[in-house]
Amino acid sequence: MRNILLSVALLLFTKTFSQELNCTVVVNAQQTGNENVQVFKTLERQLREFVNNTQWTNKAYKPQERIDCSMNINITNYNTDNFEATIQVQASRPVFNSTYNTPIYNFNDRNFNFQYLEFQNLVYNPIQFESNLISVIAFHIHIILGIDADTFAPNGGDPYFKQAQTIMNYSQQGNAYKGWKLEDGLQTRFTLIDNLLSPAYKEFRSVMYDYHINGLDRMAENPKEGKENIAAVFNDLNAMNQRRPNSFLMRVFFDAKSDEIADIFSGGPSVNIAGTIDILNKVAPTYSSKWRNISF
Fold it and tell me: Are residues 209 and 150 both part of a single domain?
């Protein structure tokens, strides 16, 4: 009986304290000219603990299932407790039967100003605004969780994207910080979550699933079939582009995937991708130099 109770307790403990992320957090303050000021080191340590130790979902993750990601915060200016910064957020997920991790998210958020007092408590509230620092970090974490889930199941990221939208909604209220509202620009957190949840851009999410499950995850077993399936997904992106030309989500996709796509089609078994190259040049012309270098 005692062993049974101990096992139950261990299971509850594991579920309660499981973390979803394996996140590297770096705070770079070189542009301020005072990068050795202790507050930056404290902020980095507190954010690393906050991101990795907070339980963001109600799911239990094994250590090997944690999502690898990084947050590189570049402080450009500060005055007492007011910080001006940008944040580059990246994430990856493992490819089945390989040691390769594929990039799934690469976002440079230029609207990351916030207030912070050294050693202040960092607490996430899913239904209430606490600070712009917490809101921006939590928003990107839920985008990471959502995109990762979409690569494993069709529309698997819905609950995480909806929570990101909730964070956006409560962060708009009485908040002078940029990035949360329509009028803040076309490459913001507002645009990102609005597009992710819009039926007008539904192909982005279906492509994230097909590209990974039917493409990359198939390549260990059947490299040619995997490559052919990856080539096929660009037809869906082309359809989205015809309906919504030059969309922000197209940039989000290729910011993460352009190098990988060039590598995939330049090596391994030969497949006919002449039409695919034409599509890539239409939907992602800013990466045309990479498409030109694909040898097939």
Answer: no
pLDDT interval class at 267 (50, 70, 90): confident
Pairwise CA distance, residues 116 & 251, whole Å:
32
Is the pLDDT assigned to residue 3 strictly greater than 70? no
Does residue 191 share a domain with residue 207? no
Same domain, 61 and 181: yes
pLDDT in tens, 149-203: 999 999 999 999 999 999 999 999 877 899 999 999 999 999 999 999 999 999 9
Q: What is the mean pLDDT of residues 204-224?
A: 97
The verdict on pTM exceeding 0.85 is yes
Residue listed under structure tokens 């509230």: 125
- Give the total number of structural domains in the chain: 2
Per the DSSP assignment, residues forming a β-bridge with 28 are 74
My answer on whether 208 and 288 are in the same domain is yes
Q: How far apart are CA 234 and CA 230, in angstroms?
A: 7
User: What b/e sequence results for 37-64 when a residue is b if at least 16 CB atoms lie within 10 Å of its CB, and e otherwise?
Assistant: eebbebbbebbbebbbebebbeeebeee
Q: Look up the domain containing 145 and give its range.
A: 2-197
The reply to whether 254 and 282 lie within a common domain is yes
Dihedral sign (CA 53, 57, 58, 63): negative
